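Q: Entry one of two.
A:
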Amino acid sequence: MEYEQFESIRREQRKTLDEKIETSINAIKEGISKSKRPCVAFSGGKASLVALHLTLHLKPDVMVLFNNTTNEFHETVRYVRDLARKWKLRFYEVKPKLNYWQVVKKHGFPHQQRYKFGEPKCCQILKTDPAVEFYRKKHIDCVITGIQASESGARLLLTAQKGIIFESESIGNARLPRKIIRINPVCYWLDKDLWEYIERYNIPVNPVYEKYGIDRCGCVACTGYFGWEKELARIRPRILERIYNMMGITQLKLDEETEEIRVRDNKVTLDDFDS
């Protein structure tokens, strides 16, 4: 990545929230004006929530896709479905053909260093493939997401190379049936901007953030980010134990990870993730 591209992103990130809102709305307006069948990819996380809220102001009847990977927090699934009812969204929920545990048993767990190992197989099978199939069936020509440059090196690189709005023939490793417009309206936003926007407009937020004291609410049993072991040891120790067993890691390792951070109120069992 060129130094000038990196500095350009940093300049955008230093702008005020109102300036960022204006940039985001202009990008959504531009994309929608060139589109006949746009769609918001809504994960239930704070970034895609803000992207959805911004889009609804411009196109209240936009299609909204929730990709239920079978590896979600139960609170996330309930929250997304409840919000869809309360906001009367044009809502669609899709699921993959295999669940998370079936995929990792066959293909292995996702690696933390995605820049080196590429998109994990579980992401492709559980997220990308069902989404691409939905876009094909519904003839989607514009996708609005909650991608932030600050989330990871891969997303920083994507933002540097493509910007806030661009055309694409693929998502991840999957080819699209046609070129689509991709809009990442909050790509320059920082987490503090998202929370300020959510508070300003009194938007109902996914309860997992407060309940578990976490910054991300993606796949529960994900091993593809740094710190996943400590987080699972704190909020889902039984899932961590299952992962360790599948990886062939000893009980001693599990005991070391969970010694001081045992969860006090864990009502979700492993059976809940097998369906």
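Q: Entry two of two.
A:
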Amino acid sequence: MIDIKVGWQSGVAVSAKEAKIILDPTSGRRVGKNAYVLVSHAHADHTYGLGTKARKYAAAETIAIYEEVSRKRLGDVVPVKLGQRIRAGDINIIPLNAGHMLGSTQFLLETPEKTILYTGDINCVDTLTTESAHQGKCDELIMEATYGDPFYVFPNRQKVYARIVEWAAAQARNGKAPIFQVYAAGKAQEIVRLFNLYTTLPVIASPSVSRVNEAHIRFGIKLKYDDASGREGSELVRGVHVFVTTYRDAMTFSGKSSRAVATGWALRMPSRNFAAFPLSSHADFRQLASYVKATGARKIYVYTGYADVFSEYLRKQLSVDARPLPALAQTELSDFQIS
């Protein structure tokens, strides 16, 4: 029997006899050049592995978005396609759709002894820019639990869309420009697409959002907008429009405006001087629980977010072996070190 170790070590680590795999490493400090690095999507907290010297794999969409955000070109990352097998020693790696954002990927690891599924960040409902996560089957599941608390049950997505449009239309009727501060990759494009489909309001995007928009357009996501840094965009900023920007972009707004955010955390945000809509690119508590049940997994490792809460729920309600992802001692993975 092959000894396979699963745990956390600057990322989710799976160690077998002939292959060392690290999924979404949070730094390159303990990632050796002989490891296989799998990057699930292009959000900044998941892309550290793209800068390592290891063998790196990510969806072409993830690579394109990363290059737009970082303004760096990657020449040593192998693009993967959904369903296409990657051989890593004695393990087959199969990329599956995660539904979280364009290019987001789960990874199914087929070992000689068992199958292990790594979800990364997943979303189990269709959005305007993504399809819901592929429902995988596995023996063991490594699952994120960002919203793994029973409190986080999101409203119907179509109803949230309607609320966003209604709010923005009301601001526009009052001569105010609705401004959405969201993540540049993923959520921003969903907001742009929403207003393209259901309103005639012009959409302006900040430069960082515009760059990611272009990556989406190259992969077939239809988005109509103007870049705020361009002449046409600058002129539109003075009128009534929808402005899509990020939390970090330092943009000045002329004229009257109203600010909004769109995030799952809106369910617990106190009432302030902005609108908050519970629109998330993550699975909520019920989706996570349903996903776990459908996998048929005998063992579940939970990480991020409400790992303790969600693990306890799975043990009590589904009677499965669920636990937070354990830390691995460096002595167990010594060849992950860079020599």
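A: Comment on entry two: The chain has two domains: 5-151+282-336, 157-277. Confidence is low (pLDDT under 50) at residues 331-339.
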